[in-house]
Amino acid sequence: MHSFTEENYLKAIYKLQETNGEVVATSALAQVMGVHAPSVTDMLKRMAGKKLVTYQKSKGFKLSEKGKKVAVGIIRNHRLWEVFLVDKLGFRWDEVHDLAEQLEHIHSEDLTNKLDKFLGFPKADPHGDPIPDANGVLPKSKSVLLSSLKAGEEGTFTGVTDHSPVFLNYLDKNAISLGNSIKVASIEEYDQTYTLQLTGKKEVTVSFKVVNSLLVSR
Amino acid sequence: MHSFTEENYLKAIYKLQETNGEVVATSALAQVMGVHAPSVTDMLKRMAGKKLVTYQKSKGFKLSEKGKKVAVGIIRNHRLWEVFLVDKLGFRWDEVHDLAEQLEHIHSEDLTNKLDKFLGFPKADPHGDPIPDANGVLPKSKSVLLSSLKAGEEGTFTGVTDHSPVFLNYLDKNAISLGNSIKVASIEEYDQTYTLQLTGKKEVTVSFKVVNSLLVSR
DNA sequence: AAATTAAATTAGATTAGCCTAATTTTACTT
DNA sequence: AAGTAAAATTAGGCTAATCTAATTTAATTT
């Protein structure tokens, strides 16, 4: 159907559109794909030919409806496999990304749906990212950055915006786990460090960078 | 590491060596790979360069130790994934081959071994084919073709040599399942049809082609 | 052993996805 | 509005894996 490369472009474009707005720049895509700009121009022409993206010379590009559908399908696969790897095989949440990047490209609606059922129709992957349903519908998250809470406010830890293993390990080390309740005990005005009160009254003091990578729902 | 294509060549060569003897012909490999002969010559030169096969111009070729190791690793993956698809996800045994062909190329010893453990260290895949262990050791099968039994002899159905969905469905339709006991009730001399007595005294009459594709152990 | 047939290889092209270097287009400054 | 900087594209090349057509090598038949 589509090559792995095409699929990875689609996924990357989808994510860039999600965070950086509708239209994507060649250079931005080149950066996340780890290739040089002319390769992107090349690839986009091919993909535009297949109606996966709409592309106007030097004006940026975005996914077509068709392209979006493919991208969401891949994200669904990716997140379901991550759940499998963690829940069934016992991998840690910081180990599964690269494996899921490979598994996500195996195309079979039947496989995906059977896997979904086997896992008990999970709503989110091990990092809290929502899993699109079989129709490609992504539940709209109501989570906010922990950095947006004021001192005294509280929420439930629902996800991360930084998926790097080093950050995930940092959270493990400080016993900050998905589903925990987190209360902002205090905020140091001088350097924006946050003291957090976790489930069981444990307190940790963390930098702004940390609270700015945590999602909570209130 | 190696491309999917290379890995598929390695697997195909391994299987040809297993059934047709040590040295493999260009044309035979071209046929099973579904490509034309010059493509095979090309590919083999590349693979010889990587020490995956030993190759002498116009003299055929065979796997090196290194190549054999890679091939067996892929077969291990393939068969473990087939067990997963059937035992855990509920696929039928005639549906899993193509999916396993994709899953087998995901490389991670860690993944393979965790999957193996999750499945309870199975010894054979859903078609009865033996699964190499983590060291690449394949248990030597003591099974024989059902066609080699004489009238009155009996065995346990342990595997098939024809893996085509149409044959597997035929077996399903006649309630011939792995693990069943099968007794050769009689052999018709005229056309070599076999009447088999299955577990529970059910009798079926089948052609020579069928008994020549069934493996039994005595 | 010579002739014919079959198998394998070489030669030369093609496609996807990438590259570097050069050029063009767009955006930003003054 | 002109000049510069940044971003995007074109031009031309490379590699892996394939192809067809032509040639060479090996095997088989008479």
Brief account:
By secondary structure, chain A is of the alpha+beta class.
User: SSE string of chain A, helix = H, strand = E?
Assistant: HHHEEHHHEEHEEEHE
Question: Overall pLDDT of chain A, averaged?
Answer: 95
Q: Report the count of strand segments of chain A.
A: 8
Kindly report how far apart the N and C termini of chain A lie.
Answer: 43 Å
* CATH architecture label of the domain at 144-217 in chain A: Roll
> Largest sheet of chain A, order of strands side by side?
3-8-4-5-6-7
Shape of chain A: globular
Q: Please, how many helices of chain A?
A: 8
Characterize the largest beta sheet of chain A: strand count, sense, and whether it forms a barrel.
Answer: 6 strands, antiparallel
Query: What is the beta-strand fraction of chain A?
Result: 15-25%
CATH class membership of the domain at 144-217 in chain A = Mainly Beta
Which oligomeric form is depicted?
homodimer
Judged by helices, strands and strand pairing, the structural class of chain A is alpha+beta
